[in-house]
Amino acid sequence: MTSGTSVPSSTPPRWRHCGQGSSLTDPVGCRGIGVVGHAACLAHLPEAELTVYLATLSPGADIDHRSTTFTPDLLVRLLNALRHATGRLHFGAAQFGRATFTGRAWFGEATFTGHAGFGGATFTGHAGFGGATFNSDARFGGATFNSDARFGGATFNSDAGFGGATFNSDARFGGATFTGHAGFGGATFNSDARFGGATFNSDARFGGATFNSDAGFGGATFNSDAGFSGATFIGPAEFRGATFNSDAWFGEATFNSAAWFGGATFTGRAWFGEATFTGRAWFGEATFTGHAGFRAATFNSDAMFRGATFNSVARFRGATFNSDAGFDEATFTGRAGFDGATFNSDARFGEATFTGRAGFRRATFTGPAGFRGAKFTSDAGFNEAQFEKVSHVGPLVCGGRVVLDGAVFQEPVTVEIAARRVSCARTRWAATATLHLRYAELDLRDAVFEYPVLVAARPDPFRHGSEPPGPLPEVWLFGLDPGVRLVSVGGVDAAHLALHDIDLSGCRFAGAVHLDQLKVDGWCTFATTPTGWDHRFPWRWSRRNTLPEEHHWRARTNSRPGRPAARGWTAPPEDAPALKPAAVAALYRQLRKSLEDGKNEPDAADFYYGECEMRRHDTLRPFGERVLLILYWALSGYGLRATRALSWLVAAMAATITVMVLWGLPANDPKPQTTGQQVGAGQDLTLTTETPAPRNPTDALSERVTTERFEKGLRVVINSVVFRSSGQDLTTVGTYAEMTSRLTEPVLLGLSVLAVRSRVKR
């Protein structure tokens, strides 16, 4: 007989060994431990002594046959000595370390009361431990199973160690129960590994294990930590329906074929950080109650998480999806982190629900990014994300804020979002784009528009789903105004920007360029002046469209010490720059040009008014220009306030009529007088007709106010308004009054007509 050591070694074992068959090439010889009371091991024990030894054994006895080689016959004789009358095997402490079993080794339904040591053993034939019970430690570390290893239904009530074991044929642990630690670290499974339905009540350690064929853990239950870190799965990895009631560690594991985790339940932490999935990764309908970590994981084939539930943090930071990534109908209750992830094919999040914050910061979408029907209860961050071949984003609904700051859209895209806020600060649109929004407060600060970009408010809810598509639920936005409010275009080149049905009442335009080329269409609204009477002066503000920059300037100007604040002007936010009137006037001028190009003359007129207001308040302008602007404003509101001009016209006419009645009309209309002289008889008679100069009235002023004089004065004034002479005889005062009225009153009439025209011109 030879020992179980395959390669002779000059180092003897630490126990008293048999030594049979020693030679120059193998000075140690047989390494089998000597039977108690004998020098030889069980394999080399003479028949008579073997019979006597076996007769001393009984069920439950302790045995030690390390490094012994067992033929099928020898093993059967030994097992029969330990078998109850019922046929069940019963071992006390069983030491078979480094033993060699040359044939079938059948320990089915055996009970190991003491330590079961099979470390380093070699099983040439079937190793049958099905239904066996190990009440103490079971050590199979480094063992080699050259044929099927059957542990189905076995019970390990203490630690089970298979670390470094090699299974060259099927390894069957289906339905086995591991009460203590189950150690398979570094084990090699060259054929199918079946753990379906197995129960691990303590730590299950498969770190560094290699599964060269099917690895079946379907329906297995891990009640403590499941460690598969660094494990290699060459064949399919089957974990469908498995239950992980504690942490599951698959960090740096390699899945070279399909990995099936569909319907699995992860109660504790599920860690797949830096794992590599070469085949399909299926996590459909899986439930992650604890932290789900896929940081820097690589998915070279489809990664399917359809219908999965993440009840805690889900981290896919830095993960790479080289094929389709399917998260359709998935539910993320905690924070979902896809920061830095790379999607090289379809990224599908259709109908997914994100209850916590969703982060896609610096993510790269090389293929389509499908968020159709996705629902975000909290914020959704796409900061600095790269959308390379994305043609459609949404429709999606967000109860918080959608952040696209610094994102880049390389291809023509349509974005459909219903959210409280949408931030596109520094977003770069390298192709045409259309943003259909609802409810949103939109920020476009420092955005880059290389091609035309349309921002439009969507009046009706977005529709999604299969035929017929239904409205996208907006319960998180219930009660809010569905309109879109633009808050800033500062730092934007507005030449390619078009706005449709947008609320611009709070939009800050300072810092933008080419505002004269901004396209404002549809029902776009601007801020207005305060309503009601000014509490400092006895007049009402005329209602007109304004820019927030004017509000901020007036609020700052009137909040100086010693000056009462102007009511109704919006105070500037902390980050708003303090603009001078000249800068605000420039904004008005550019936007007026934009509105005029769009044939929106009435709103353009309001912006002309605002421009003149800022020029009037600009202390750096020449004094004469400011005086003219003050007069222009006072008389007609820069030619835009018909009521003001008409009021002045009526006042001027009333004053002129008063002057005419009291001093301008003569006391009596002068009558022509004819005088003549006859020089002599028979000579011609010379006659001269003259009209005497009008005589100033001398009676009391009250006596001059008569209906006749009023009618004459009114006729003079009306003719003056239309720039005609009345032909009425007037006193010197009346003549100069008529001249003045003929100069001023037509101008006031013209200003009134101009103001009316500015409101009705199209």
Please describe the topology of this protein:
Blueprint: H1 47-56, E1 63-64, E2 69-70, H2 72-81, E3 90-91, E4 94-95, E5 100-101, E6 105-106, E7 111-112, E8 116-117, E9 122-123, E10 127-128, E11 133-134, E12 138-139, E13 144-145, E14 149-150, E15 155-156, E16 160-161, E17 166-167, E18 171-172, E19 177-178, E20 182-183, E21 188-189, E22 193-194, E23 199-200, E24 204-205, E25 210-211, E26 215-216, E27 221-222, E28 226-227, E29 232-233, E30 237-238, E31 243-244, E32 248-249, E33 254-255, E34 259-260, E35 265-266, E36 270-271, E37 276-277, E38 281-282, E39 287-288, E40 292-293, E41 298-299, E42 303-304, E43 309-310, E44 314-315, E45 320-321, E46 325-326, E47 331-332, E48 336-337, E49 342-343, E50 347-348, E51 353-354, E52 358-359, E53 364-365, E54 369-370, E55 375-376, E56 380-381, E57 386-387, E58 392-403, E59 408-409, E60 413-423, E61 428-429, E62 433-438, E63 441-443, E64 448-449, E65 453-457, E66 463-464, E67 470-471, E68 484-488, E69 497-500, E70 502-504, E71 519-521, E72 525-528, E73 545-546, H3 548-557, H4 581-597, H5 601-616, H6 623-636, H7 642-664, ...
Parallel strand pairs: 1-4, 2-5, 3-7, 4-8, 5-9, 6-10, 7-11, 8-12, 9-13, 10-14, 11-15, 12-16, 13-17, 14-18, 15-19, 16-20, 17-21, 18-22, 19-23, 20-24, 21-25, 22-26, 23-27, 24-28, 25-29, 26-30, 27-31, 28-32, 29-33, 30-34, 31-35, 32-36, 33-37, 34-38, 35-39, 36-40, 37-41, 38-42, 39-43, 40-44, ...
Antiparallel strand pairs: 66-67, 72-73, 74-75
Helix pairs in contact: 4-5, 5-6, 7-9, 7-10, 9-10
